[in-house]
Prior knowledge:
The relative contact order is 0.27. The protein has one helix at residues 2-18; strands spanning 19-27, 35-44, 50-56, 60-71, 74-80, 83-85, 90-93, 99-105, 114-121, 125-134. 12% of the residues lie in helices and 53% in strands. It has one domain (2-134): Immunoglobulin-like (Sandwich). It contains one helix and ten strands. With 146 residues, it is mainly beta.
Amino acid sequence: MRWLVLAFTLASANALAQVEIENPWSRATPGGAKVGAGYMVLNNKAGKPDRLVSASSPAAERVETHLHIKEGEVMRMREVKGYDIPAKGRFELKPGGAHLMFMNIKAPFKDGDRIPVTLKFERAGDVKAALRVGKPGAPAAPHKHH
């Protein structure tokens, strides 16, 4: 039984170390807003590709994976079934591109908040992160507070 517990612990630690979340952030939302967005860089340290398949957060009813797509002269947002992260590579979620969409948020995201999110990967399993919330309309991630 001890060997089984040790093997499970080592396998879990290895899976979590395969994907690193860099600079998770969001923007503050106005009062009454029902949605918020999340951005970050997904770094896959493994020698095999991985895929972000879903996300969840206690701050929202659900979290979807979205892309901005240009259709003619119009930018539209579309839900997608996840994001592929290449082996030993990275995938960036950023404004105007791929992002997490927090649907039916339970409270406005306020400057200085930290929004918990769990990312589910095909290979790495569940990885937890906390998005730092910056000012409304911020073009980039809020600065880290030391």
